[in-house]
């Protein structure tokens, strides 16, 4: 597993595409979790980069966070609205770790307020999930081909070109 910084160092192409698409959609991504009956669930989420990590935080008492509390595996996909994928798209896989550190929560809340004006300072966090990455991929389309970049821990990212 890799932290965001470790991932970005090992898979710079995927990290750049993920970061670019994440920013372009106002931080919106789609989170895949596993429901209690084993079926997948897709939910919108706004993951944040904070203290060199990728965090999946949000409104308390949601089904997506109950899913993660029960089974920490996830897939995170940049929101795609362009069927031609001209700007690329990226997916990350991993597991979350629920970090229960009140000082970190308050630093996160202050950073969120400083960046967005959204104020959750002073609130208690039910969950604060740090993403530990186990894989990633990205797609870029151009000049009659599609490049699929793939990364797994311990391996360099590699590109598969489809014509």
Largest sheet: 9 strands, antiparallel
Q: Spans with pLDDT under 50 lasting ≥5 residues?
A: none
Radius of gyration: 16 Å
Backbone shape: globular
Please state roughly what percent of the residues sit in beta strands, choosing from under 5%, 5-15%, 15-25%, 25-35%, 35-45% or over 45%: 35-45%
CATH class: Mainly Beta
Gross CATH architecture: Roll
Helix content: 25-40%
Determine the number of helices (DSSP H or I, runs of at least 4 residues). 4
Order of helices and strands: HHEEEEHEEHEEE
Per CATH, the superfamily is Electron Transport, Fmn-binding Protein, Chain A
Q: What is the number of strand segments?
A: 9
CATH topology: Pnp Oxidase, Chain A
Task: Please provide a written account of the structure.
Strands 1, 2, 3, 4, 5, 6, 7, 8 and 9 form a nine-stranded antiparallel beta sheet that branches. The chain has helices spanning 4-10, 12-24, 63-70, 102-116; strands at 29-34, 40-45, 48-50, 53-56, 73-78, 89-98, 129-142, 145-151, 158-162. It is 26% helix and 37% strand. Strand 7 (129-142) and strand 8 form a beta hairpin. The chain is of the alpha+beta class and 163 residues long. It is built from four helices and nine strands. The mean pLDDT is 94. The protein has one domain (4-162): Pnp Oxidase, Chain A. Helix 1 (4-10) crosses helix 2 (12-24). Residues 27-108 form the Pyridoxamine 5'-phosphate oxidase N-terminal domain.
Short description:
The chain is α+β, with helices and mostly antiparallel strands. The protein contains four helices and nine strands, in the order H-H-E-E-E-E-H-E-E-H-E-E-E.
């Amino acid at each position: 597993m890799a932290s965001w910084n470790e991932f970005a160092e090992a898979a710079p192409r995927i990290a750049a595409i993920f970061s670019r698409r994440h920013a372009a959609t106002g931080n919106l991504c789609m989170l895949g979790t596993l429901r209690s009956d084993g079926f997948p669930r897709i939910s919108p989420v706004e993951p944040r980069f904070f203290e060199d990590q990728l965090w999946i935080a949000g409104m308390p008492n949601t089904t997506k966070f109950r899913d993660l509390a029960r089974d920490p595996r996830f897939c995170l996909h940049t929101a795609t609205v362009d069927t031609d994928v001209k700007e690329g798209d990226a997916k990350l896989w991993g597991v979350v770790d629920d970090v229960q550190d009140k000082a970190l929560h308050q630093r996160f809340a202050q950073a969120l307020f400083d960046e967005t004006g959204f104020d959750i300072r002073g609130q208690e966090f039910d969950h604060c999930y740090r993403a530990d990455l186990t894989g990633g991929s990205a797609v870029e389309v151009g000049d009659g081909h599609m490049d699929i970049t793939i990364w797994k821990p311990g391996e360099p990212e590699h590109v598969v070109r489809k014509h």
